[in-house]
Amino acid sequence: GENVEQHPSTLSVQEGDSAVIKCTYSDSASNYFPWYKQELGKRPQLIIDIRSNVGEKKDQRIAVTLNKTAKHFSLHITETQPEDSAVYFCAARETGGFKTIFGAGTRLFVKA
Amino acid sequence: DSGVTQTPKHLITATGQRVTLRCSPRSGDLSVYWYQQSLDQGLQFLIQYYNGEERAKGNILERFSAQQFPDLHSELNLSSLELGDSALYFCASTEGGSGNTIYFGEGSWLTVV
Predict the structure, then answer these.
(1) Are residues B67 and B34 in contact, defined by beta-carbon separation less than 8 angstroms?
(2) Is-contact A86 A44, C-beta < 8 A?
(3) Which of A96, A99, A105 sits opposite B58 (nearest CB)?
(4) Which residue of A has its CA nearest to B45?
(5) pLDDT tens, residue by residue, B30-53
(6) Per the CB < 8 Å rule, is A97 touching B100?
(7) What is the pLDDT of residue B98?
(8) Which of A2, A73, B1, B45 is deepest in the core (most CB within 10 A)?
């Protein structure tokens, strides 16, 4: 089945700097890659997603890139703010769309 | 508010006991997922139902079972509870099919003492 690896597990950046989180997946047929943000004690919330027919997608300060050949995708947050501090999860949806497998998460700290 | 409703929000129970967690998906959503999140851990996929039928199974223990009813709500039953079952259990829903967004409920905090 699908396996998603996520790095780093912890990331600390200064306010205003950029943050990059990387994920790799194992099932080359996976076709949907969402990113979720989870604040402490709250539910994960979708922040951006990308489908396999697109190489890059941007939404204000957040962007995601996908390299299907290498089977990896990345989340880029620019001009980070303290409220960006949270745990971020990448995920990949398996062929057929029945399972969405999550990475282990990255805890992002943005220092003011 | 995601539209996915989970009850109870918090539950404390003793080892060996059995509990049932309930989930109502967003209106019109056919798929229900259950995930387990232990302290400082990731989201472990347990099981998925689509329109009443089991569609995918993850790392769900034999002591755990789930079902989705005709009105599309779902229940996750956890029995012979152990201390290690203490976790946040999320239900999520989606319309179904590939490429659809998963919407999470607020979760049910289970503490086994």
Answers:
(1) no
(2) no
(3) A99
(4) A101
(5) 899 999 999 877 899 999 999 999
(6) yes
(7) 52
(8) A73
